[in-house]
Design brief:
The protein is an all-alpha fold. It is 69% helix and 0% strand. The chain contains 18 helices and no strands. It has helices at 3-6, 16-36, 44-53, 59-78, 84-114, 120-127, 129-133, 137-144, 156-175, 178-202, 207-212, 218-230, 241-262, 270-293, 299-304, 307-314, 316-333, 349-379. Helix 4 (59-78) crosses helix 12 (218-230). The chain is globular, with a radius of gyration of 21 Å.
Length: 407
């Protein structure tokens, strides 16, 4: 192993590079919501910036890859311990439920007493609140083509997918050895592709259903899960280091060609919905391998270890939940931000960027405050649900015992 390989922490422990990748993921999502969606192009520069920032929807796929990698690693490292599933469920619940349900309490219980909203969109939101409380917003989004999740709450669909994954995947890991788990990951990816194909063949206009329904979004979760299994194989991820770079470049080239062919890479496009998700998952899976294998002084390592990016990654859950409603609130207060600037041929870009900057600062401040004052109180309770591995797992790029894939 190289020196940088030895420095990588065991999977299941804190891996600093992953904070940087979380930061990349939340920034991609933020740019789509804060720049691409409100920007109505007037100039060529507007159009170019909108085309680039529209790709930010793929940030959710990066979150899925990271979730699959980390959750599968935790489950494999603690499998067979007493209270194995209880400890996992309790620790996950302490991480995600307080902020999620706290947001719902504010949205559905407190906010009606603080403001007099006569907006029909709020009436729709209140009528559909059962979907939010039960982590089934993705089904609502698919059934309503997105119209059932107004007032910048549509992004809750991905949180529903994550929760559904947390409920089902541990049961599969409990029953399967690593080799079988790899087969499950591959077959799930194929099944997801067939699921998306069936939907778009039945109704090409409802490609959004492939984007928000769990069976259609297994590519990233299964890619991350497969990498977690391979990280515990005899050679770890060492055998994938060179191939990951090649896959990264080839995958980006394929996505670029698809974007040129389809006039953009949007999930509303049925062709993109069927074909692009596996490629995106492989690209981000390769990026994960590269991030874990990069030497400390490399460009990738320096970027991912930057304090600002890792800070965004640390608070990414709060940022994801908060940023879109914050954007909506700011837009409602400053409706003239899209007015064009005469000196820039009427471009609305300066106003959009200013609103994005204010939203970024406000969202970060709220997410950091929430983490320090509110969420951390629940995170401290994790100590009652310890998940110590039976033995220290090997580093993701190191060798593991020969029996690692024999169970």
């Amino acid at each position: 192993m190289s020196d940088n390989t030895r420095s990588v922490a065991p999977t299941g422990h804190h891996l600093p590079a992953l904070d940087g990748l979380r930061g990349v993921a939340i920034l991609l999502v933020f740019l789509t919501h804060a720049v691409a969606l409100p920007l109505e192009p007037v100039t060529a520069v507007d159009a170019a910036i909108r085309s680039v920032t529209r790709l930010g929807w793929t940030g959710v796929d990066l979150f899925f890859v990271l979730s699959g990698f980390l959750i599968t690693g935790i489950l494999l490292d603690t499998k067979g311990q007493p209270r194995w599933w209880l400890n996992f469920a309790a620790r996950r619940g302490l991480r995600i439920f307080p902020l999620y349900y706290g947001a719902l309490v504010f949205l559905f219980i407190l906010l009606p007493h603080l403001t007099h909203w006569s907006d029909p969109a709020y009436a729709t939101l209140r009528a559909n609140q059962a979907w939010y409380w039960t982590y089934t917003v993705n089904f609502l989004s698919a059934a309503s083509h997105g119209s059932g999740t107004p007032l910048n709450t549509g992004h809750f669909w991905s949180l529903s997918i994550e929760e559904q994954y947390y409920l089902i995947w541990p049961l599969i890991v409990a029953r399967c050895g690593p080799r079988v788990l790899l087969r499950v990951a591959v077959l799930s990816g194929i099944a997801g592709l067939l699921f998306r194909l069936a939907i778009v063949l039945h109704d090409p206009s409802n490609a959004v259903a492939t984007f928000v329904l769990t069976p259609g979004r297994l590519d990233g979760l299964m890619t991350g899960g497969a990498l977690a299994v391979l990280a515990r194989a005899p050679d770890g991820l060492a055998s994938l280091q060179k191939g990951a770079v090649a896959v990264l470049w080839v995958g980006c080239s394929v996505l670029g060609a698809l974007s040129v062919w389809r006039g953009g890479l949007t999930y509303q496009d049925p062709v993109v919905a069927v074909t692009a998700y596996p490629v995106i998952a492989l690209v981000f899976g390769s990026l994960l391998v590269v991030a874990l294998s990069s030497a400390p002084g490399s460009v990738v390592a320096r970027v991912l270890s930057s304090a600002s990016l890792r800070s965004w990654g640390k608070y990414s859950y709060g940022l994801y939940l908060i940023h879109y409603p914050v954007l909506g609130a700011l837009e409602s207060k400053w409706q003239g931000y899209r007015h064009g600037v005469a000196a820039l041929d009427g471009s609305p870009l300066p106003g959009v960027l200013l609103l994005a900057a204010v939203a970024a600062v406000a969202s970060y401040a709220l997410a950091r405050l929430s983490y320090g004052v509110y969420e951390s109180r629940f995170l401290d309770l994790k100590r009652y649900f310890d998940r110590r591995p039976r033995a220290a797992p090997p580093p993701p790029l190191a060798r593991a015992p020969q029996s690692a894939l024999s169970r």
